[in-house]
Design goal:
By secondary structure, the protein is of the alpha+beta class. The chain has one domain (6-308): Sulfite Oxidase, Chain A, domain 2 (Alpha-Beta Complex), CATH 3.90.420.10. The chain is built from ten helices and 13 strands. The protein has helices spanning 11-14, 17-20, 26-33, 74-79, 92-96, 121-125, 154-161, 199-203, 255-259, 302-305, and strands spanning 60-61, 106-111, 117-120, 131-138, 143-153, 169-174, 194-198, 208-213, 216-217, 227-229, 242-248, 283-286, 293-294. Strands 1, 4, 5, 8, 9, 10, 12 and 13 form an eight-stranded mixed beta sheet that branches. A hairpin with a 4-residue loop joins strand 4 (131-138) and strand 5 (143-153). It is globular, with a radius of gyration of 18 Å. The two termini are 20 Å apart.
Amino acid sequence: MLIKRPSDIVPSEITPQRVYEERRQLLKGALALGLGTGLVGSTLLSTPPVHAGVKLAGVRKSPLSTSGEELTPLNDVTTYTNFYEFGTDKKDPSENSGKLRTRPWTVAIEGEVKKAKVMDVEELLKLAPLEERVYRMRCVEGWSMVIPWAGYSLSELIKRLEPTGKAKYIEFISLADPEQMPGVNTPILDWPYLEGLRMDEAMHPLAILCLGLYGETLPNANGAPVKIVIPWKYGFKNGKSIVKIRFVEQQPKTTWQLANPTEYGFYSNVNPAVDHPRWSQAKERRIGEFGKRATLLYNGYGDQVASLYAGMDLRKFF
């Protein structure tokens, strides 16, 4: 397999076609992606840091954290991210999300559950003990980070809601407010942003309801005030700024499936053997590092999650 040098990579090979065609300047994209040097880090990002905000009390270390890997600096985590509700450039979320109002904030729980309700984010913060979960995160575009999230297993919430026997999947619906989110005024995607999981995926201990990072409440640019994090899947599976959770019987359609079903599947598990139609997934670039490293199946969490997909054709169910 041919692995291109950083200087050989062009934006159309690392960004979905509908997005890169709307990029404002090739130079701006090149600087954000570090194409000239192969390095993306604090020295290349001129955007001021976006601080997470309020310190979270009582966050304990989790035995489920990834160990032995260097954390990606907070400045890079908050200024190099995808959040198309605020723009398609990597630093657009940090520049354009300041108007997002994260208090008050509620999440509506609907569908096949015995205890449908509307929950305030403050209630979610107190639902279960908060843990620091250090996870490898892999973007479908080919870059990765190591992030210390704060939250708890999504199963803690699910068990309290008592899903019915018909609940086979969970759908996550994000905020889509054109007044607070300038990207929602563009037709790049169909809004609101939708994501979903199979019930056994959502119940896995590694899947978390995330309420912070680096020990503080989530920054707006990273999905404040509540998001989901599933570390064995590509980053776009992690719904941000969630306002509704629906328990459903049928597999929900997700935003990127609707946008391009030949390129983005429902499962979207990290798999170096299944290429994106327009680029290889065999290698990745860790933000802050020079060069590339091998992509790991299930992002390195195969020992924990591979049993969820036993017997499945991973090329068909990509």
